[in-house]
Design goal:
Blueprint (H helix, E strand, L loop, with lengths): L10 E5 L7 E5 L2 E5 L14 H18 L1
Length: about 70
Amino acid sequence: MNEPVLPHGEVRVRESGDGPYGQEIVAGSHRWSADEPTGLGGHDSGPSPYDMLLAALGACTSMTLRM
């Protein structure tokens, strides 16, 4: 897919078509997937939204301490 890079601060989330919960996420030039684990009916094609939230909070904390 040859899509334009999103401006800073914009994020796009849309269904990926990979199972009932799979999502495609785009932020700037970065692209990744989100999904639910197989035990919750997903295909585990990416981290769950809860895992991404925990990762975002961890990264923010670590970067803030570095600053």
